[in-house]
Amino acid sequence: ICVIRLDEIGDFVLFTPFLRALRRTFPNAEITLIVNPAVFGLAFSCSFVDRVEKFDPRRKGIFWPYLLPFRAFFFGRRHHCDFAINGRFDSDFRYAASWMIAGSNAPVRIGWSVRSGRHPALLDAGKDLLYTSVFRKPPVHELDKAVTLAVHAGCNIDGEEPIPGLDAAADVRSALTLNQDSSRRIRLMLFPGGSYANKKWSLERYVAVLRKLSQDFPLEILLIGGEGEKEDCHLVRQYLPDATDLCGKLSLQELYMTARDCDLYLGSDSGPAHVAAAAGTSTLVLFRSPATLSPEHQHSVQRFLPRGKGRIEYLQPERPIPPCKGSCEKDFPHCILQISEDMVLEKLKEMIEDLVAKKENL
Known about the structure:
Elements: E1 2-5, H1 9-25, E2 32-35, H2 37-43, E3 51-54, H3 64-77, E4 83-86, H4 97-104, E5 108-112, E6 133-135, H5 142-152, E7 186-191, H6 203-216, E8 219-223, H7 230-239, E9 244-245, H8 252-260, E10 264-268, H9 271-278, E11 282-286, H10 301-304, E12 312-315, H11 341-361
Parallel strand pairs: 1-2, 1-4, 2-3, 4-5, 5-6, 7-8, 7-10, 8-9, 10-11, 11-12
Helix pairs in contact: 1-5, 1-9, 3-4, 6-7, 6-11, 8-9
């Protein structure tokens, strides 16, 4: 069995129930998972698959969009399988997973129809013909799509928890040293960045909120992110000198293990938010997309809200700021700035009080 999932970290996390159902239904099958390099660090120790391989659909160059389908097709030719599955729902133009499916020449090739999306991409026209079966009318949330696809694939679904634990290698540990007074502190993981500039909330507001919050609760603040967030984390730490800067120092598996030792995540809609939620951490996500956005839109909260065992909360603008019409269209923080400091502070206090009450009852 060959499973292709070439999109981002959050997409992979929400797809893990499919992999679990596939392994449970076909316990003796040899399952290969193909992901993009950004996800490989989290996927390679997944216990539901036998092998994980990387394929990078996002190389640069003016000819790459034209070469990508051929590269994907011949990559698929290397994987002789009986059953090939493309887990992506939205446009496949930038990923070419459909061409990889076709290259595998598997007798059974399944995925979502290009006509299922809210705005089917013209550049994906005809790709349904590359599959032996395609499916339409999926549920809204990406995790529910994964479960529905598992049903279409013949898997057994028995109402398990929404996100299975993300396995880590035996030698991967949390970046935190647990102190004796750890039960008295609230460990808060802050991700100040975003994959796009318009996903980022104001750094000044993060600092102001956490300063006010620390007056009421004993906080231990951890700054996380990748290379792209180093400058943001450095600026935040200038104003919060007691914060621990882990930006650029954690692998995805280490991020997951560290999140398990934290009480709370605060940050934008991002891969780290999904990792934290999967670790069982209470999560507050700030979305750029307004409440008026269609649930089927590729930026909607209804599709991409993290899922996990902990408490999951979110804040979003009520409506777009002109000239934005649907989701935020600017290339800088814009619509998301309608989320005020007071809104975030109030929600964090509510979540922390809930956490403190649970700790006292243990």
